[in-house]
Structures are given as structure tokens and as C-alpha cells.
């Protein structure tokens, strides 16, 4: 099976699978608590260090979650929202994030402003700089959206926001594992990601980077027993003031072990390996009759979206899957401001990683020609 659906979920490596199976077998044989104790070095230390290395951050700023959306919403709800506060998002914002923001609109009267795009699809950073004010409490930018391969300039946004007392969230769900990230250069207060996509880790894993500035002023809605305790009179004492205060104590430890292995494997391979293959696939599609590539912006990576004049996205994906090639029929409603605004409904999404080969591209293009 050729896998061009990494943006949905990358395939785990054989070693990641082996470690997860071994952990579950130990739970079966010895008990879950006992197995957790025997793997404490990985579960309580190494996985946080691995994520910190991946992001150019410190382990104390890393929290684990079941997924990227849970991480993003948890950070959002930890802020003290005031009536009439403004939030700036881009047209590439993920629908799951917009659902959470709509609840803030309902409860607090939060106002959402959508940053315009330049004619080529890049963010209008001059508009952002001109429309910042004391009322803007949050700026949210998706690094790479789920609908196409544009790479938004999150570092340039960060440089603009350094002069304003607002929070800066970066949704890196589709860029972690695909692009090198440096939290110092990005300057975000919160960055969230999933383990299952370009990191090729297991489903049900995700994490957040929470800056020291965010930790100093935000308050989690709930702190579990892993970071808090209750005395005989019901008084609650919080433990270390680190990002793990935002975690719940219960989690899938076999998946966490798999996530740690996937991150170590990603760190061992140069990021440049897949870029040449991406450009090759992009150029092949752009030169093919009846194919309309959806590629806004000056920089793209990882994801290629397109429509076919003679075949629906669902039909094309089903045909390819039957021939042994995975892709995905994307939903425009998942990136509503941009994709629905462009008049799209469904589209074909291809997404690659460093395990794909030029032969995979040749097979796909041959099948596309036959179709």
C-alpha cells in the first residue's frame, strides 16, 4: 500500500509498533500500574525531553494530551476572557478551533476578526500590524492548514506581536514532524500538535507547548491529582507550576511510549529528504490535464490539494485506494473561511512523508492517467 495520507495519519514504524505491543503485553502480564512504574523514565521524563528537542523548548513547557484539538481548546479555556475581547484568526483556521471560539462568542461576546489574504494567498501581515490594539486578546495562526500545503509565516507574525500584550497561538498540527520548528524564533505563547500525522506516531496522542508567560497568567479549568492534592478540610494545594498542570492523570501509556519512539525517529532524519519528492509530485500534477491544484501562497510543503474536472474527489480516492494507493477526499468545511469561500466542497488531498519514494509518485501518476 502506497500511503499519501500522512496529513490524516502517518503510518507508524515497525519499531514504534513493537514497543507499543511490548508495553501492552507487560500490562497484561504484570498489571497496568506496575508496568507504568517500570517505564517511568520514558513516561515521566524522556517523552517530554523528546518533544522539547523537537520544538527547541524546555521539558517544563510541554504537556501531553489525547490530540491537538484537546490541547488547543484546553489552552484557550485557561484564559480569563472579558466581554468584547477580540480574536484575530486567518482564513486557514481549522473548523474545530472555530467551534471553540464560537462558544466564547456566545458566553463572553468575544469578537472574531479574520485577517485578509494578499492576492497570492499569503497572510496580509501589514493589515495585522495596523489592526492590532489593546482589545486584541488572541491571535491564532494555523502553520499549515489541513486543506492545502501553504506554510504560513508564523515567525513573521511572532515578530509583529512582540510589541503587543496579546496571546499568540500556533496550530502546528500539520507542520510538526514535517517542518523544523523553533519556539524561540516563533515566539508563540501556545503551540499545539498531534502525534499521529507527520510525526507518524499513534492516534490518540498530542501535545502542547505552553510558554512561561502563558503559565504565569493562565489558569487551567481543572488540575488533576498528578499535579494537585486535597487535605482533610478539602483545601487544594497545587504542585509544580509547569505545563503538566494542564494534563489529566489517566492516559494511554502504550501510545505515549509509541509517540516517544516516533519523535526520536523523526529527530534522526533530516527534514530536507521529502522536500524534493514533494516538488516532483506537485510539478507532475500541475502539468496534468483536468487537474486543478489548490496551492495558495509563496511557500508550500507536505500537502497537495486538487480537484479533477471529470471525477469527484470521493470517486478518485476510492479508485486509487482500490489500486493500493491511499489519499483523502478533503472536506472544505474543515477549513471553511478559505475553502468554502473559494467555492470548493470536496477535494483530493495528497500528503507525503520521508518514507515515500519517487516510485510511489510514478505509480500514482500512472493510475491517474489511466483514470
Keywords summarizing the entry:
transaminase activity, globular, aminotransferase, 371 residues, four-stranded antiparallel sheet, Aspartate Aminotransferase, domain 1, 15 strands, alpha/beta, single chain, 2 domains, Aspartate Aminotransferase, domain 2, seven-stranded mixed sheet, 14 helices
Verbal overview:
The chain has 371 residues and is of the alpha/beta class. The protein has helices spanning 14-30, 32-38, 40-55, 68-77, 95-108, 125-131, 154-161, 183-186, 212-217, 253-267, 273-286, 313-322, 336-340, 358-370; strands at 2-3, 62-65, 86-89, 111-114, 136-142, 167-171, 190-194, 206-210, 228-230, 236-238, 291-294, 303-308, 325-326, 328-331, 346-351. It folds into two domains: 12-266, Aspartate Aminotransferase, domain 2 (3-Layer(aba) Sandwich), CATH 3.40.640; 272-367, Aspartate Aminotransferase, domain 1 (Alpha-Beta Complex). The strands form four sheets. A seven-stranded mixed sheet has the order 2-8-7-6-5-3-4, sandwiched between helices. It has a four-stranded antiparallel sheet with strand order 11-12-15-14, covered by helices on one side. A two-stranded parallel ribbon has the order 1-13. Strand 11 (291-294) and strand 12 (303-308) form a beta hairpin. Helix 1 packs across helix 2 (32-38). The longest helix is centred in the N-terminal third of the chain and has 17 residues, at 14-30.
Amino acid at each position: 500500500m502506497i500511503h499519501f495520507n500522512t496529513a490524516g495519519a502517518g503510518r507508524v514504524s515497525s519499531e514504534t509498533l513493537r514497543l507499543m505491543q511490548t508495553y501492552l503485553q507487560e500490562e497484561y502480564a504484570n498489571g497496568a500500574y506496575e508496568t507504568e512504574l517500570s517505564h517511568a523514565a520514558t513516561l515521566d521524563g524522556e517523552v517530554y525531553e523528546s518533544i522539547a528537542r523537537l520544538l527547541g523548548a524546555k521539558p517544563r513547557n510541554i504537556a501531553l494530551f489525547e490530540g491537538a484539538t484537546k490541547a488547543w481548546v484546553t489552552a484557550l479555556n485557561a484564559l480569563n476572557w472579558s466581554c468584547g475581547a477580540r480574536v484575530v484568526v486567518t482564513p486557514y483556521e481549522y473548523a474545530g478551533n472555530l467551534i471553540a471560539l464560537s462558544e466564547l462568542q456566545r458566553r463572553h461576546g468575544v469578537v472574531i476578526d479574520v485577517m485578509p489574504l494578499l492576492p497570492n494567498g499569503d497572510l496580509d501581515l501589514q493589515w495585522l500590524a495596523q489592526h492590532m490594539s489593546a482589545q486584541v486578546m488572541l491571535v491564532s495562526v494555523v502553520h499549515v492548514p489541513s486543506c492545502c500545503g501553504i506554510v504560513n509565516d508564523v515567525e513573521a507574525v511572532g515578530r509583529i506581536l512582540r510589541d503587543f500584550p496579546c496571546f499568540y497561538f500556533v496550530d502546528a498540527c500539520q507542520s510538526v514532524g514535517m517542518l523544523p520548528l523553533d519556539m524561540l524564533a516563533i515566539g508563540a505563547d501556545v503551540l499545539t500538535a498531534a502525534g499521529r500525522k507527520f510525526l507518524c506516531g499513534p492516534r490518540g496522542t498530542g501535545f502542547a507547548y505552553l510558554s512561561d508567560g502563558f503559565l504565569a497568567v493562565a489558569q487551567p479549568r481543572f488540575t488533576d491529582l498528578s499535579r494537585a492534592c486535597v487535605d482533610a478540610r478539602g483545601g487544594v494545594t497545587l504542585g509544580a507550576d509547569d505545563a503538566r498542570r494542564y494534563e489529566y492523570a489517566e492516559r494511554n501509556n502504550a501510545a505515549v511510549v509509541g509517540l516517544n519512539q516516533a519523535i526520536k525517529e523523526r529527530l534522526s532524519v533530516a527534514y530536507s529528504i521529502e522536500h524534493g519528492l514533494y516538488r516532483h509530485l506537485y510539478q507532475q500534477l500541475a502539468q496534468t490535464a483536468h487537474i486543478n491544484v489548490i496551492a495558495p501562497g509563496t511557500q508550500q510543503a507536505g500537502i497537495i490539494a486538487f480537484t479533477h474536472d471529470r471525477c469527484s474527489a470521493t470517486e478518485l480516492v476510492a479508485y486509487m485506494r482500490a489500486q493500493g494507493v491511499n489519499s483523502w477526499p478533503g472536506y472544505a468545511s474543515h477549513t471553511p473561511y478559505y475553502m468554502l469561500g473559494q467555492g470548493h466542497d470536496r477535494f483530493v488531498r495528497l500528503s507525503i512523508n520521508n518514507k515515500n519514494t519517487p516510485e510511489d509518485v510514478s505509480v500514482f501518476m500512472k493510475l491517474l492517467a489511466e483514470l
